Amino acid sequence: MELDPGQHFESRAAEEKWDRLWREQGVHRFDEGSAAPTFVIDTPPPTVSGSLHVGHVFSYTQTDVLARHQRMNGRNVFYPMGWDDNGLPTERRVQNYFHVRCDPAVPYERAFAMEASPSDGGTKTPPRKISRGNFIELCLALTAEDEKAFKSLWQRLGLSVDWSQEYSTISDRSRRLAQLSFLDLFRKGHVYNLEAPTMWDVDFRTAVAQAEVEDRSQKGAFHNIRFGMEDGDGSFVIATTRPELLPACVAVAAHPEDQRYASLLGRRAVTPVFKAPVPVFASPLVDREKGTGILMVCTFGDATDVLWWREQSLPLRQILGRDGRLMPVEFGSASFPSLDPAAANAAYGPLAGRTVKEAQKGIVELLRDPAGAATADGAPPLVSEPQPIEHPVKFFEKGDRALEFITTRQWFVRLMDRKADLLEAGDRISWHPDFMRLRYRSWTENLQLDWCISRQRYFGVPFPVWYPVTTSGESDFERPILADAAALPVDPTTDAPPGYEAFQRDQPGGFRAEGDVFDTWFTSSLTPQIASGWSLAPERHRKLFPMDLRPQSHEIIRTWAFYTIVKALLHENTIPWRHVAISGWVLDPDRKKMSKSKGNVVTPMHLLDQYGADAVRYWSLSAKLGTDTAFDEKVLKVGRRLVTKLFNAAKFVLSQSGPEGPISSPLDLAFVARLQDCVARASEALDAFEYAAALDTIERFFWGSFTDTYVELVKGRARGESDPEGRASALATLRLALSVQLRLFAPFVPYITEEIWSWTLARSEGQPSIHRAPWPRAEELLGGRASGADAEVFTTAVVFLDAVRRAKSAAGATVGRQLSRLRLAAHPTTADGLKKSLGDLVAAARVEDLSIERRPGMEVGILEVLECQLAEMPPER
RNA sequence: AGGCGCGUGGCUCAGUGGUAGAGCGCUUCCUUGACACGGAAGAGGUCGGUGGUUCAAUUCCACCCGCGCCUACCA
User: What is A67-98 written as a DSSP string?
Assistant: First the structure.
């Protein structure tokens, strides 16, 4: 080892060197053959279609520190990394990046290549339409690039991932397992397909599940519209925020106890403009206080409409198409009855093809016209100007326009009949922090719909399903044809089902592909099974599943955590993991969530360059689980300072030459006893996943007890010639303390600790990598060495050192200044304590004549400086 | 609207039924033999508010205020 004075730790060089060596030597490798207890992590596969930001660094480092601790603790750690590349985020990114749209009608092009589109320059050229096959190729190509960026960040950060366990959610194996999952659920009766009103995003043109829906407060307006009665007797005014759905009105509802409308119940009303006769029924779900207390039921304005439609067996009048525009309809037909079909068709005609927003304008105009009145008085149906309101509206979380309820055929996983089991499963899992279990609970309790798993998209895992085509050319959805498990993964749009030939595709008596893909969560909810191999590797699966730890962030408890629990329950009637660790978010300095759209994202690479990976890790690890933290560069500086201090302290310890001997000096024994206490507390915290508390404990000990005090106190003895036994004891203590503290720090700051370890400890401790060295244990410190230590000796010495420093500072002298005379007063107990390490104290204080007055009246543990005489300054050198 | 979390020195955060903690920032001092990417000494807080329990409350309880999130609320 060559250590030059003034040498600094070069973090960048160390990161490259050690990261490479760790991989070459398989330091983080899961040992398939080992019988050692395992620790299995269900690593979150990052969505690779997003930009990197410090939030990624933050949460992934928090998992890594637990993995590293468990590994040093002797566990056979399984720590894989996956990439979540399938799904809408990738599709959207490809659409924007290449300025393309997928159109399954376009034929596949071989040797297809595209350049990134230069941001369209506002030219408004329509996106190029490309085939499904080519679209998927672009998705794969782009995600491959993104995965590289993530991987290099993870490696730079020093995540102790076992890279031989890498997977991606669009890979053959993931597709195969996702399709196996579907087959298993089908066989067990947990999935079904159904044509029903479903929440639909009109821009992405796909169904979405309840878990992906969020409420957004939107501006709207109550429109008060007068309806007539079919028998001409009376009228009433409904209030609606969606007048454009008037043509789809199928009923009117009022509260059963509302006297105002009691006379209307059971009779038939007539809609204005379209003159459709509709029943008036009573429902306790109607809020008498809201609007006018009576409302129109449409197919479909909201979830309550869907409920009433089912409950009252109302007819379906779907006017909204999958593209969010009004479809052409024929009034006077069986499905769209009207008392005045000619007028109704004349009114509706211009609305067909319009968006919801445009249609609303058109309808409001019609409602202002007395001609549309459903009553005899001939007054305009819109009885007053619209009253603006703010109200919550359901959106797809990634969407820009409100969701609509549109009747389509979709596949669902039954959840509503398993809520009790799901709640019980959540309770069997340990949540960190514990209160996070409430988010799971409240989500599960409030679940209202089965899980819609089909998406009308392209870059995803296809359903392994075909339908028989009847002789009349219809798909028989009741008798789906499932793929053979052995044939998976399949793509039904290109593969033929078992028992059929390719030429029978779309032919009467043949088959038709299910063209949908799975909800990405259908695959993501299998990350434990994908990592373990599940039914493809039963032996391995048994060893790895249920897993130990699922780390994730809180906003996806309702999706990722929830669906993973669902799958484990439905497939194997178990929980997927024993612990869930929920990381917080990194907020910007104004405490706002970082997001690309807000432009407040802090990217990690420059921070790694500027402060080093260990410092960035330090920042990540100083925040507790579950707690959102404002990004603060100051903490990075503190981390860098710790790295430097470790480097220098180690340099000092390892440059002290001389033989070690038994640890015998009272001060050394007392210090080792303290170290032992630190080890115990840090270990306890880490075992409970409280890495931040552990770091705090270790760091506090390192600065407070080690560098600032113990090292200063024994420097003289470690270098002195006069006391060989004392010197040998000091050297042994310093080296033990370094070894132990390095190992305590190793999971947190793996690079600097490995660097120092490599100087001499790798050889003397018989373990080439500190990350495979044993986590410190109390026994190793005891071993007869610290037993019988008088811990007070150290405490008293600290008090002494403080008093001397204060006295010198008050006298305007430096810490290193010699004292000719120092007189102290203390309680006899304290004075006796001081005597036990007197030699060290005299040397540390650099005092020639030290005397301690015994005063029984004083408080124990307090020192009073009676006199402090500075020595003559040495002559100028 | 219900639930959960948070509110501690200028900033970022720990913590605790018994005279308040850290780091950064600030003031003063110091190139000393591991470290100026450092060290020493200091100033700075009635721990969101009001009640209650207790010998004692920043900590426990109730209510309130502010912020954040979760769930619900679409007529």
Answer: HHHHHHTT-EEE--EEEB--SHHHHHHHHHHH
